[in-house]
Amino acid sequence: MLRRRFVNLVAQNSDGVYSLRRIEAAKHLFYPSIKEAEESANDEKKKYKTLRRLPDPITSFDPSPVGVLFPGLEWFELLAPRSGEGRIVNSNKAGHTAMFDADKSLYLALPNLSQAKGTSPVSFSVTHPGSGQDSLYVLHRYPGQAVAQARFVPDRSEHPRSCFEVLEYKGLSNDGNVPNKGWDWRLLPPPPFVREPGYQPSMINSHTTIKDANGCTTICISSDKIGTHCFDTWCFDSTHHLRWKHLDVWKQVGEWELPFYGRAEHVPELGILLGFTAGRKPHHLCAVDLSTMDMDGQAPTWQHVWDNATLPGEKNWYPLFFRLINMGDNRFCVAKLFGDVEMGKQFAVLTGIEMERGQDGLRMVQHKRTRYVFNRIDVKWVL
Fold first, then answer.
1. 211 pairs with which residues across the strands?
2. Domain CATH for 132
3. 314 in a domain, yes or no?
4. Shortest CA distance to 117 belongs to which of 156, 85, 77?
5. Tally of domains within the chain
6. pLDDT tens track of the chain, all 383 residues?
7. How many CB atoms lie within 10 A of CB 17?
8. Closest Cα to residue 208, out of 135, 294, 267?
9. Is 40 part of any domain?
10. DSSP count for the chain of H helices, then E strands
11. % helix / strand / coil in the chain, to the nearest 5?
12. Spatial separation of the C-alpha atoms in residues 130 and 241, rounded to whole Å
């Protein structure tokens, strides 16, 4: 994955209108090299800065129309990695979706979601072979509740009531002859546990994607008292005219949970899953070596935990949002949104880090840290 130039911020003003702003990674988050980052490690003026105002918006998004029937807040997600760093998909409460290409300043209207996805759904970008476009898989964070409330969608899917669907670009039809181009949503089977007798509604606590040596991607989710389930997206198939096919198959891999808070990033170059520690705050940065992870065996545990990426004052703050942004070339942006009860304010902290594996094992190098205190403009998503 090539190095990204920007971190995308979706902010909301007092009128409820959303805007997209972009933070320059080289200016605010990273030094040119690890050596320069280490040389500046003891200079807090260089390492920690406050952003007085956000960059000017490059576009705006209207809020959901008043009186819509569908539950849930708007959501935004980056379509990556093959699509670049500027293709952003968003949905309003009515299920209307659109894509904005920040690099080309182009809008594209998309088909409506088949089912509402609720507040802050979990999403996964997946690359399929033979296509120049990535696919975006979106799953309701409370899958059992979503299936129970889902509308019946006849004649569109084998799964007319589901909490899971994918946005994909369709090229030729299955016979390879009739053009059928365009973006569309396709309903997928829900996690199998939502239909089991005695199932109690649960939340997806942690999730990730893992790409194997052949490039095939597996989606993994964990829920409290449910365990971990994986969804195989596709595989190569020499008998298919495309030489590959969708699998769309769920399987339970253990009664254990992934040891992460929220999303974890697969870093194949380093053979790790990188994320935040599960459990109580402050949710330190941590890593699990995939070589020690048996998907059919015992629960995975952290081999590496770094607390120096945690701010001293975090113990007095309450977290609103944590996310790890893969910036490419083993660089990441640690994005954290906090509230401070004493100050009565909210703020975002963005920290640039770089991972490397040497003779002494895996290590984390911190680059720059930028803080922005909300002032009539609230950061809602970091992509």
1. 217
2. 2.130.10
3. yes
4. 77
5. 1
6. 678 999 999 998 888 889 999 999 999 999 999 999 998 877 766 567 888 888 999 999 887 766 655 544 589 999 987 667 899 999 988 888 999 999 999 999 999 998 888 778 999 999 887 667 899 999 999 987 766 665 656 555 566 678 899 999 986 555 555 556 789 999 999 999 988 888 888 899 999 999 988 889 999 999 988 999 999 999 888 888 778 888 999 999 999 999 999 999 999 999 999 999 998 777 899 999 988 776 666 788 899 999 866 665 555 677 788 899 999 999 999 999 888 777 778 889 999 999 999 888 899 999 999 989 888 788 889 99
7. 13
8. 267
9. yes
10. 4, 26
11. 10, 45, 45
12. 11
**Does some domain include residue 61?**
yes
- Which residues lie closer than 8 Å to 278 by C-beta, 6 or more apart? 205, 206, 257, 258, 259, 260, 261
Tokens of 2: 């090539």
Handedness of CA 182, 185, 186, 191 (dihedral sign): positive
> Residue-wise over 206-218: b if at least 16 C-beta within 10 A, else e?
bbbbbeeeeebbb
How far is the C-alpha of 23 from the C-alpha of 223, rounded, in Å? Answer: 33
The residue segments making up the domain with residue 142 are 6-382
Rg value, the chain, Cα: 21
Q: Is residue 1 part of a domain?
A: no
Burial zone of 299 (CB within 10 Å; 0-12 exposed, 13-18 middle, 19+ buried): middle
Structure tokens at 117: 């996805």
Name residues whose C-beta falls within 8 Å of residue 360's C-beta, 6 or more positions apart in sequence. none
